[in-house]
Design goal:
single chain
């Protein structure tokens, strides 16, 4: 799953490996909307001990397809976009309560609830703010982790002469500034993620605990740009990124601890550990069964294409 940002004839890649660039934590996900800006996404996850669960989504996002065909009306364009979203999502067992509307020439408002057998395998195209891992932790606990990619590792470190390092520092600082100006409108992006988890929260990093079983992560893309504007002026930081293999005029070093601390408050990854009585938060099988029964009629009523996969059992 890749995320690309177009800036005129250029693209910024958000990721860690080669040109597969996707954004840190959920934090940089809003850049998927590119220079069109005004990206908003709210997600509320409810996760059971075995990793099954549901996520309610309310998002304003760029079309995942070409905005319009000749003679196509607003409703048809939105229907085509939503059909693409459903067909392109993986790890989804069923959908429920889908609603959508075309906002303007480039964006749609999409809402709905997706059920999943395993949150660690969930990927939902533009409405997926991050990759989630739900795993066993010590002392009979569970750990939820957020990352921007399933890829392991990053670019290969390089060795350069001091003169070449100095040249690249200046080049990448100026390159970042040019691309930042071209993408200034994405400052309106916003992401809010809420997690309801079984048991009680034992430890959390870069997530705000709002109750014994719920946490929240909320940020705006303007926070990312303020952090990058600050760090790009730090020659020592830029040198470290260059020697780590990054080109800051094209890439954002998503997993860099300093950048993460500037945006989210802590240098560590986004994680939470829960323990205690890990009881299911809802009857997953019953809700999925009902959602599957209602799905064909909902798709027909909304004028959408029936996805052959990955919505199973329809």
């Amino acid at each position: 799953m890749r995320c690309r940002i177009r800036c005129g004839t250029r693209r910024w890649y958000l990721g860690e490996k080669g040109m597969s660039y996707r954004v840190t934590v959920a934090l940089l996900m809003c850049l998927c909307c590119g220079a069109l800006g005004c990206y908003e996404i709210d997600q509320e996850f409810t996760v059971n001990p075995n990793g099954s669960g549901k996520v309610t989504v309310d998002a304003k996002l760029i079309f995942p397809v070409a905005p319009a065909k000749p003679g196509e009306d607003r409703r048809s364009t939105a229907q085509r976009a939503v059909s693409t979203l459903l067909a392109g999502s993986s790890g989804v067992t069923a959908w429920q309560d889908i609603r959508f509307a075309r906002l303007d020439a480039h964006r749609i408002h999409f809402a709905g609830t997706a059920y999943f057998d395993d949150v660690s395998k969930l990927e939902m195209m533009e409405i997926q703010a991050f990759i989630i891992t739900w795993a066993q932790a010590p002392a009979a606990c569970r750990q939820l982790s957020l990352d921007f990619s399933r890829e392991i590792g990053g670019p290969k470190p390089i060795r350069l002469a001091e003169e070449e390092i100095q040249k690249r520092v200046l080049k990448q600082q100026s390159g970042y500034t040019r691309n930042k100006i071209a993408m200034s409108s994405i400052g309106k992006g916003r992401v809010r993620l809420t997690f309801r988890l079984p048991g009680k929260v034992k430890h959390a990093t870069n997530l705000k605990v709002v109750s014994d079983d719920a946490l929240c992560l909320s940020f705006k893309t303007s926070q990312l740009w303020r952090a990058m504007d600050k760090l790009i002026r730090d020659e020592a930081w830029v040198r470290r990124q260059i020697l780590a293999g990054y080109d800051l005029s094209e890439h954002i070093p998503a997993r860099d601890p300093t950048l993460r601390a500037e945006v989210l408050g802590d240098r560590g990854p986004v994680t939470v550990v829960v323990g205690g009585e890990l009881e299911p938060l809802f009857d997953y099988e019953a809700e999925v069964e009902q959602a599957k029964k209602e799905f064909p009629a909902m798709i027909k009523r909304l004028g959408l294409e029936m996805p052959s996969a990955p919505v199973h059992g329809t």
